[in-house]
Amino acid sequence: MATLARVVVIAVFLGGALGTSLRLGLDLGTAALDWPAGWSTVVVNVLGSFLLGVVISRLPARAPHWLRAGLGAGTLGGFTTFSALAVMIVAAPDAGALPLAFGQLILSLVLGIAAAMAGLATGPGRSRVPVVSEDE
Question: HSE of 18 in the Cβ direction (CA atoms, 13 Å)?
């Protein structure tokens, strides 16, 4: 494995550990607030969408690939979770909460897209900066 690939893998691994730790902290915090099931997943995914938009729009194009991968796929990929959203939907019929779960799914998608657009809008006059460069 080339040196750059190793550095990228390590950055994603460390970022993922950080992101999942932040996610656990938020889940524990919302459990203490006695939020109804599924709402912490909605909040995490919307917040993560916004933060990814900010990272993409504000991180300079010349930033190293390992940094973009570590922040994006690692930290924010570990923080947000489609799998928790999917499990929430699949488990909802057992709990009799299918309409609420589908509402949370739609809300996650709509607010997530809006949050990503808002995050991208924070950039200095550009809407996109490549997360992965083909020449690295």
Answer: 13
Distance of CA 92 to the CA centre of its chain: 23
pTM beyond 0.70? yes
Percent of the chain with pLDDT over 70: 90
Q: What six digits make up the tokens of 70?
A: 């570590």
Token output for 21: 């730790």
Give pairs for 100-103: CB < 8 Å, separation 24+. Answer: 100/36, 100/38, 101/38
Residue type, 132: V
List the structure tokens of 7: 């550095």
Digit-coded pLDDT (tens) for 26-58: 888 888 888 877 788 889 999 999 999 999 888
